[in-house]
Amino acid sequence: MTPIAAAGSASRPGGPEGGGPLLEVRDLHTLFDTPRGIVRAVDGVSIAVDRGRTLGIVGESGSGKTVLSRSVMNLLPKRAALPADGEILFEERDLRALTNKQMREYWGPQLAMVFQDPMTSLNPVVKIGRQITEALREHLDLGRKEAQVQAVDLLRSVGIPAPERRLAEYPHQLSGGMRQRVTIAIALSCSPKLLLADEPTTALDVTVQAQILDLLARQQQERHMSMVLVTHDLGVVANRTDEIAVMYAGQIVEKAPTRTLFRSMRHPYTEALMRSIPRIENPSHTRLDAIPGRPPDLAKLPVGCRFAPRCANAQPRCLEENPPLFTDDEPRHEFRCFFPVGTPAGDEARQRNARAGRTAAGIDMSTLTKASA
Amino acid sequence: MAGSGTAHLRDREDIVLSVEDLVVEFPLGGGRKVHAVSSVSFDLAEGETLGLVGESGCGKSTTGRAVMQVPRPTGGSVRLRGADLTGLSGEALRRTRTQLQMIFQDPISSLNPRRKVRDIIGEGLSIWRPDADAAESRKRVDELLDAVGLDPETSGDRRAHQFSGGQCQRICIARSLVLDPDVLICDEPVSALDVSVQAQILNLLEDMKARYGLTMLFIAHDLAVVKNISDRVAVMYLGKICEVGTADAVYARPAHPYTNALLASVPRPDPEARAPSAPLEGDVPSPIDPPSGCRFRTRCPKAQERCAAEEPLVREIGPDHFIACHFPVDAPEAPASLDERSTAASSS
């Protein structure tokens, strides 16, 4: 287990086309100055997305996953501050240095985003046709007729029946699933190289969620597009990503290729999150392993590890020192923990806590997850 | 069902709540109306949790509210320990309704942010037991605070806005239990919460059920959550019930094509599992003009002419397992004869 010296250095595999990843975020901090103090919404995050690959970002509310994706899109409110140490490299160009006018060239043909709530991301008083053709005419220099034809093709490709008729309709005339298809069609209209999907299916029903996730996966493959899928649901990312980053309190606590993460998770938070999900395979009335307490206030972060107050492995060291990212045998597997799950150090820490009946943070072990032995 | 019928109602001594042919319609003017709930029947035995599951717009929340008589159902009966609530009004309804309590999806907006927690929880007592000893009432409130995992000393005098979503839901649960209700109706109680907090609240509801002998109607869209908490499950689609049975039977051997499709769509947190397929095409039809016959037929992979002409009635297909479908799904995965299925279900 070795700490990674420079943040981000371990996550620089070349893309299939060579020349480094499409998107690389290095040591990003996004801060908000609020009356309560500085809120560290994203606090030292490094990620990389290769061409044609999908990265899943998983976290609970307040973990910073949405602020991270908006930082990449350059869609933050004015009061957000991005300290100088940190980069958002898109094809090796730092997006943070771009003016709004330059950024407008990127939104659409380079980067596009799909948001959680399709009703608020569509303009309710503008017909669907105009909302799609706007980007086509602006970026691809298409005439009215050509843009119309293209819009119909786009709507058809995202599975909207009778697309010609839909062009003349308003968003409120469509169902939630259809609206999300329209926002996907808009996002895809200029063939972006990277699609950021922020909780794209959270507002939708399960049967529709499955349709939309399939649609995103199919479009990504056909267009050889890269995708960042942001979600709170481990079930959504399990089957549809190449790599997953788990966020907690503004930091990435674990990052690994998807299969590795599910097979040998190292961070106690990832483990606890997995165990707290009710599983459809389990018999009813299976007792869930809840995580006690709640995430820290991002304006008053603890000194040590941010998960230590809720962690079953917590030791005195965890309360004093925030762990850096470590790797072990698999170089692409990083985790922010001194006593990782499934390692001798982690097992020993948990047994020590079990013997003492409480963790170093004073949590009663009987309220925590059972030892993973 | 995507049909009607009452074959699944049980004739037992210990039925606490019995809902029969419940109909809720909202007029739209011009003679048109929204058929929100159309002839839904179910019953709840003492100490049982019934999960009511379905997608948005299927009428599950309206069903829960119609049981509370807000709004009054258009038709059908709601009997609580034999007394029909639909026939009651005024003081008699208010008094009976103390035995039915409800918790809602958004815990923060269901509490007055400026009131003290102790006053919120104790309000039912001050209305219904005005003569009770103040110290006695306070003891009851503190006991409930403690039971839901909040420290009465530190949190009793704080105000609702000082609590997180999970803690607010704990306060709502305490408030709902203060009058010792017979039935607790939970309308999406965990869908606004993060998974780690969701697990805390689900465990808490199970503890409360064991401690206070609660009977629950648990309404939710999340299939895994519903399975976890329920003894029996009823699946709704477009204002009708499709399938009813014990939670384990319905999930292990879904017989209605809709239940089957719903279960197949759930993404599983396991990369080895087959990616969920999307067997259902299209959207739910409008409840203003629902399809004839079986309401699911427009999206059903097995639909035939009969489904349009004739509404399927609820019928038994296994021990405590009922569906409303003319052409049920064959035993999925492990094919077993009905006999084997019966023994498997009765032994579980």
From TrEMBL, chain A:
It is a peripheral membrane protein. GO terms for molecular function: ATP binding; ATP hydrolysis activity. It comes from the Bacteria. GO terms for cellular component: plasma membrane. InterPro entries: AAA+_ATPase (IPR003593), ABC_Ni/Peptide_Import (IPR050388), ABC_transporter-like_ATP-bd (IPR003439), ABC_transporter-like_CS (IPR017871), Oligopep_ABC_C (IPR013563), P-loop_NTPase (IPR027417). Its main location: membrane. PROSITE patterns: ABC_TRANSPORTER_1 (PS00211), ABC_TRANSPORTER_2 (PS50893). The keyword Nucleotide-binding applies. It is found in: Cell membrane. Keywords: ATP-binding, Cell membrane, Membrane, Nucleotide-binding, Transport. One of its GO terms (biological process) is peptide transport. Residues 1-14 have a biased composition (Low complexity). SUPFAM superfamilies: P-loop containing nucleoside triphosphate hydrolases. Residues 1-21 are annotated as: Disordered. Pfam families: ABC_tran, oligo_HPY. Residues 23-274 form the ABC transporter domain. PANTHER family: DIPEPTIDE TRANSPORT ATP-BINDING PROTEIN DPPD, OLIGOPEPTIDE TRANSPORT ATP-BINDING PROTEIN APPD. Belongs to the ABC transporter superfamily. This is Peptide/nickel transport system ATP-binding protein. It comes from Blastococcus xanthinilyticus.
Automatic annotation (TrEMBL), chain B:
It holds the Pfam family oligo_HPY. InterPro entries: AAA+_ATPase (IPR003593), ABC_transp_ATP-bind (IPR050319), ABC_transporter-like_ATP-bd (IPR003439), ABC_transporter-like_CS (IPR017871), Oligopep_ABC_C (IPR013563), P-loop_NTPase (IPR027417). Residues 265-293 are annotated as: Disordered. It comes from the Bacteria. Residues 17-263 form the ABC transporter domain. Keywords: ATP-binding, Nucleotide-binding, Transport. The keyword Transport applies. The keyword DNA-binding does not apply. GO terms for molecular function: ATP binding; ATP hydrolysis activity. One of its GO terms (biological process) is transmembrane transport. Belongs to the ABC transporter superfamily. NCBIfam families: oligo_HPY (TIGR01727). PANTHER family: D,D-DIPEPTIDE TRANSPORT ATP-BINDING PROTEIN DDPF-RELATED, TRANSPORT ATP-BINDING PROTEIN. This is Peptide/nickel transport system ATP-binding protein. It comes from Blastococcus xanthinilyticus.
